[in-house]
Queue: 3 jobs
Job 1
Amino acid sequence: SYFVSWVNSSNRRALPPAGRILTRLTSKDLGPFIERGITRYRSDYRDTDVFIFREILNTIVRCDRVLTTPGGSLLLAGRSGVGRRTAIGIVASMNNMKLFSPKVSRSYGIK
C-alpha cells in the first residue's frame, strides 16, 4: 500500500496548514496516477523514457508525502541511475510545483 496526495481534487488549492490529505492506494491503483504524472513531466520538463520499478515508485511516493507537507524539504542521495531527479520532477509536475535545481561545480560557493 502507498499513501499519496494526488487522489483528492481539493489538493490543487494552496497547501493547508496540516498538509494535503493522503489516500491509500495499492500498487495496481497507483499505476494510472504515475502514468499521468510521467506524461505531465514529459510535457513540462523533458521527454524521457521512464522505467518504473519498485525503488523509483517508492521514491516518488516518499517525495510526494514530504513535499506536500508544510515546510517539507528533501535531500536525495544514493546510487547514480536510480531516478532521483526524474522522481522529483514527476512529483513536481503532479503537484503543480516549480522545480529548481542549482548547478554545482568546483567553483560553487555563496555569492
Note: The chain has three helices and two strands.
Job 2
Amino acid sequence: MVVFTHSIIQRWVQDPYKLGVLHNHDNEYLHYQEDWYILSSKIENKPDDYVFVYYRGKNDAWEGYGGSVVYTRSPVLPASIVPELEKAAEKVGMDFKKFKRTDNSCGPAPPLLVRLGNKMEELEQSIGKELELLGKEAEMFGRTETAFISEIRRGTKGN
C-alpha cells in the first residue's frame, strides 16, 4: 500500500525596507504569490484589537487579484475601530464605507436530517437536468435515425 502525505508550509517574509509589507512567494505546491500591506493595526490585548490588511496577488488563473480584510477578536466589527479603518483606507485611496461586511457569526450546523434533505433536493435537480438532456439527445438520435433510414430506402429503390 502506498500512502501519500501532504504538508504545506506558507512562509510570510517581512520586507526588510517596508516593515508593514509581508511577502508570500515561492511556496512549495502552492501556485500563487501574495503581498500583504498592513494599512493599520492596534494590538493591545483588548477586545477591539485589529489588523487591517490590503493584499494583491497572482495565481495560475488570475494576475492582479486583491482585496482587504480586517482581523479582529470579535465576530462583529467593533464600531470603536471604524474611524481608524476609514482613515487608513482613505490614505491609500479607498473608501471604507464601500467595503462589504461579512457575517462571521458561524451559527450551529443545521440538523443532519435538514442537511440530508438539502442534498436530496440537489440530487433530484441534478438528475432532472440529466434526464432532460438525455431526452433531447434521444429525440435528436431519433430524427437522425429516421433520416438515415429514409436515405437507405431511397438508395435501395433506385437499384
Note: The chain has a mean pLDDT of 88.
Job 3
Amino acid sequence: MIIDDRRYISCGGDSLTYLKSLLKSWSIDIDDDVMLYLSREKFPYKREVFEKLCLMYNLRIIKFDDDNDISILFRKI
C-alpha cells in the first residue's frame, strides 16, 4: 500500500486543481492501494466530489473517513 500524507501542505492556489494534479500524477498498478490523508481545512469537499474525480482517473474509493481530517483509500480500476 502506498501512503500519501498531504495534510500539512501549503498550496497557494485552488485546492481542487491541486487535488486533480495529485491524482493525475500517481503511477499506481492495478493491484496497488493508495491511502491519502488530507486536511479538512484545506480540502473542504464531500465524498461526492472525490467520487467524481475518481471517475476521471480510473480510481475507486474503498474507504472514506472524514472525522477530523480526511482519509481516503483508493484502488485503481
Note: The domain at 2-76 is CATH 3.30.110.40 (Translation Initiation Factor IF3).
